[in-house]
Design a protein that fits this description.
heterodimer, A: about 160 residues, Ubiquitin-like (UB roll), DNA polymerase, domain 1, 2 domains, globular, B: alpha+beta, Aldehyde Oxidoreductase, domain 4, 3 domains, seven-stranded mixed β-sheet
């Protein structure tokens, strides 16, 4: 069955089982590998992407849910590699990733949080994002999200 | 110098590269080992006295480096980048001797077909320390080869050529490395060039961001799971959810009916659902009706009891003075405690798996592996090819922590690819990652000490019961037969490093019905928890300050003693050890010496809503010469967070024959909300780099346990630490 939605601004019409998780459609049908498989049960957040601007864990959402909506993955977060989204710019500045596998999900969760709460406190971040990183980049993620908030404000001004 | 040219291996260099003690996968044989029995003693002594085995297959520069048309230099790393930052440190070292900017070095993983292999693999925090000199020598040789060729073309002496950012000049002559590299096919190997002195380094010693930062921030498809090949199919392997379970019967009818399922493979011990997409493969797996033969329905208590001091093969690895007889003589003055660490797993974020393509006379396997040479051999055997016909394309690994040294799963992926005749993508489900893992062994420790009249420790003994961490992957039980016990990895850190006249360490090698293996910091993790917790209890019992007591017991005239002193004194100062604590805060300390790197931590905790919360961590690390302090800081932070997980949350349990954890809801790990303030202080103690990835993990759990005691008066001696 054809499901129609927009992905990173472009139309997509994958012909798939409507119950297939959005994660696998994005990764393997649309070949966007930035969204990662971690747990398959919405527990780790590695598969976080945006649907109509809200952060979702795509491993546990059927593709049919995206029908008619706008999906954004990490590949579509920045305008270009030279004009990075504040979150990706902050990630670069703070030298955040180690293995890097969970980072797309964290960046998408952070971008989602900042869209709603442009100036989060440490507590807001700690309670607002429940993704998992095993390498232990949490101290840098906290710093990077605060930094992204600053960058975002400078850009908005 | 172009890729197409297959150069014969070896040749130009007969020089002797690094000479140091043998380094064995996942651990170092330390000088204190004295194994029982002549064969074991022979092995320990031989290992100690032998130079580093030459495990790098070629020292020819063109196998390591390739000059690209844009005058960047591709460095083919034999070391796996799994998050530890090894690409960055090695790129820095290469840039120094190649006289190019760091941006000009492009690091990729070497595949097993392109020339350089490194049988040492990646692990044991030894990549930088073992390659520190060889990579610079090879890079310098490459530079001199290019310079010699330019000199020949320009008819000038080599000494008249200057190099900057990969551009050579001499008078009016100017050429890039690339231009010169394509100008001839005849290369002469120069004499071993002198290496730059430390003082001339441009990058090494400075804070440098990761060379893989941008692709990781942009979400580039760099991991094994991201690999795609034309006509690729997706498969999931059926694995027993029961410990030791074997397939009794299988009904594949319903699975085969799932739309998208192409084939259900049943080939001896291998059952896999192959489909057009991952979702169909997973649905098919769920529809397989498997009945399992379960040899024993293990329960937690009996499973835990398998690892008990007094059971298994006993191997004494340290023996100084006569501690046992001293302890026996005055049993009433003996202080004795027991400690336990649980079964656990790596739980890295990218599940294990591989992408494989097998043709009639060749195979390619894309896999994040810490041991590509071993993988190649084992996979070749499985699919009846010669090792040379199998190419392992190592990919970035989404975490590993010691997990990716076992080839069994990749062998199965290759078998599936061979059976279906098309490329296949096979990765575990998260449930399989927990129930079909290679586990961090559970351990049991008994420590006893005789306290003298003035509160001094006269004698100390440590007995560690542990399953192995490395013997399982050695061929045909060789490890068990020869070594008796895994003192190399599981027993790493079991010896008492303190200056106590009478001391001993003994390992009791147990076996579990699950495969146990290496986990970040190997034996240092359980042994440091047990020994350092015991030292903290001894300090309390004798009314001593635990940090000052350690200073006293680590003092001496050797260089190592000076390093201990500096680490502990810096730690006391930076952590505010001698200043009053805030209300509701407990403070604890621990130290470890892991393969020459010394790491020590002071940790402050609070109890919030009945739960232990880590508030502040001060870690001091002396990892020898610091190639990239920024990279070291990242590793210390990461090891600290992993240590917090191990101290407060991590552990697997067994019930009714199964590992009970099936996903992260039953295997909690540290989250953003667990992040303390972390201060990292890097000391430099030597002119060579030591390991960094593992050493800072070990002190975390015992320092937290000590802080909890300081705050609550409760001595928690089992991990994870629970107040109730």
């Amino acid at each position: 069955m054809e499901i129609t939605f927009k992905i990173n601004g472009k139309p997509a019409k994958p012909d798939v089982d409507p119950s297939m998780p959005l994660l696998w459609v994005v990764r393997d049908e649309l070949n966007l590998k930035g969204t990662k498989f971690g747990c398959g049960a919405a527990l780790c957040g590695a598969c976080t992407l945006h649907i109509d601007g809200e952060a979702y864990r795509s491993c546990s959402i059927p593709v049919s849910f995206a029908e008619g909506k706008e999906v954004t993955t990490l590949e579509g977060l920045s305008e270009s590699e030279d004009n990075l989204h504040p979150v990706q710019q902050a990630w670069m500045e703070e030298n955040v990733p180690q293995c890097g596998y969970c980072q797309p999900g964290f960046m998408m969760a952070a971008a989602g949080l900042l869209a709603k709460n442009p100036n989060p406190t440490d507590e807001d971040i700690k309670t607002g994002i429940s993704n998992i990183c095993r390498c232990g980049t949490q101290p840098r993620i906290l710093k990077a999200i605060k930094r992204a908030a600053q960058i975002q404000q400078t850009v908005t001004l | 110098m172009a890729t197409e040219e297959k150069k014969p291996k070896k040749k130009f260099s007969r020089r002797k590269f690094l000479q140091r003690g043998a380094i064995v996968f996942g651990g170092t044989i330390v000088a204190t080992i004295a194994a029982k029995g002549p064969i074991r003693r022979f092995i320990a002594q031989t290992a100690e006295n032998t130079d580093t085995p030459i495990l790098i297959s070629s020292l020819e520069p063109t196998f390591w480096f390739e000059v690209m048309p844009d005058n960047t230099i591709q460095y083919k790393s034999t070391k796996l980048e799994m998050g530890q930052g090894v690409f960055t440190g090695l790129a820095m070292l290469a840039a120094e001797e190649l006289e190019v900017s760091l941006e000009q070095i492009k690091v990729v993983h070497a595949n097993t077909a392109n020339g350089v292999e490194d049988s040492l693999g990646t692990g044991g925090s030894n990549s930088t320390l073992t390659l520190y000199k060889p990579i610079r020598e090879v890079a310098a040789t490459m530079r001199e080869m290019l310079k010699a060729q330019a000199a020949k073309q320009w008819s000038v002496p080599v000494t008249a050529i200057k190099v900057e950012n990969g551009v050579m000049t001499s008078g009016n002559h100017k050429a890039t490395y690339y231009e010169i590299s394509t100008s001839t096919k005849e290369w002469k190997a120069p004499e071993t060039p002198a290496l730059k002195p430390t003082s001339a380094f441009k990058y090494v010693g400075k804070n440098v961001k990761r060379v893989d930062l941008k692709p990781k921030v942009m979400g580039k498809p760099i991991f094994g799971i991201d690999q795609t090949l034309p006509d690729m199919l997706y498969a999931v392997i059926l694995q027993s959810p029961y410990i030791g379970g074997t397939l009794k019967s299988l009904n594949t009818k319903e699975a085969a009916k799932i739309s998208g399922v192409v084939q259900v493979i049943e080939d001896q011990d291998l059952v896999a659902v192959v489909a057009k997409n991952r979702y169909a493969a997973e649905m098919g797996l769920q529809k397989l009706e498997a009945v399992w033969d379960i040899p024993k329905k293990w329960q937690q208590a009996e499973f835990a009891a398998l690892t008990t001091v007094g059971i298994g093969t006993e191997v004494r690895i340290q023996s100084e003075g006569s501690p046992e007889s001293i302890l026996e003589k005055s049993p009433n003055e003996v202080f004795k405690q027991e400690y336990r660490t649980p079964l656990a797993t790596h739980a890295h974020m990218e599940p294990n798996g591989a992408v494989a393509q097998v043709e009639k006379d060749k195979a390619t396997v894309f896999v994040g592996t810490q041991a590509s040479t071993m993988f190649r051999g084992n996979i070749a055997k499985t699919i009846d090819l010669e090792a040379e016909q199998v190419n392992i394309e190592t990919t970035f690994a989404g975490g590993s922590f010691g997990r990716r040294i076992d080839s069994k799963q990749a062998e199965k992926v290759a078998r599936i690819a061979q059976i279906v005749g098309k490329p296949v993508h096979v990765f575990n489900t998260r449930q399989q990652e927990f129930q079909n893992a290679i586990y961090r062994p559970q351990t049991h420790h008994v420590l006893s000490a005789k306290i003298g009249k003035e509160g001094n420790i006269e004698a100390i003994t440590h007995n560690q019961a542990t399953p192995d961490q490395i013997l399982g992957v050695l061929p045909a039980n060789l490890g068990y037969t020869l070594l008796g016990a895994d003192f190399v990895s599981a027993g790493h850190g079991a010896s008492i490093l303190y200056n106590i006249e009478h001391k001993s360490a003994t390992i009791w090698q147990n076996k579990l019905p699950v495969q146990t293996g290496i986990w970040r910091s190997v034996g240092m993790f359980p042994n440091t928890f047990a020994i350092e917790s015991f030292m903290n209890e001894l300090a309390h019992k004798t009314g001593k300050d635990p940090l000052k007591m350690r200073l006293g017991l680590l003092s001496g005239n050797e260089q190592i003693n000076q390093r201990y002193k500096k680490v502990l004194e810096t730690l006391a100062e930076k952590s505010g050890w001698n200043t009053p604590k805030a209300a509701g805060i407990g403070r604890g300390v621990a130290i470890g010496n892991d393969r020459k790197s010394i790491a020590a931590a002071v940790i402050e905790v609070a109890v919030v809503d009945g739960k232990i919360q880590v508030k502040k961590v001060t870690q001091v690390i002396d990892a020898g010469f610091a190639i990239n302090p920024e990279g070291i800081r990242q590793q210390v932070e990461g090891a600290t967070m992993m240590g917090i997980t191990a101290a407060l949350y991590e552990g697997l349990e067994v019930k009714d024959g199964q590992i009970t954890a099936t996903n992260f809801h039953l295997y909690p790990v540290a989250m953003l909300s667990d992040t303390p303030e972390i201060e990292v202080i890097i000391l430099e103690g030597h002119d060579e780099p030591y390991g960094v990835g593992e050493p800072p993990l070990a002190p975390v759990a015992p320092a937290i346990a000590a802080a909890v005691f300081d705050l609550t008066g409760k001595n928690l001696r089992s991990l994870p630490l629970k107040l109730s």
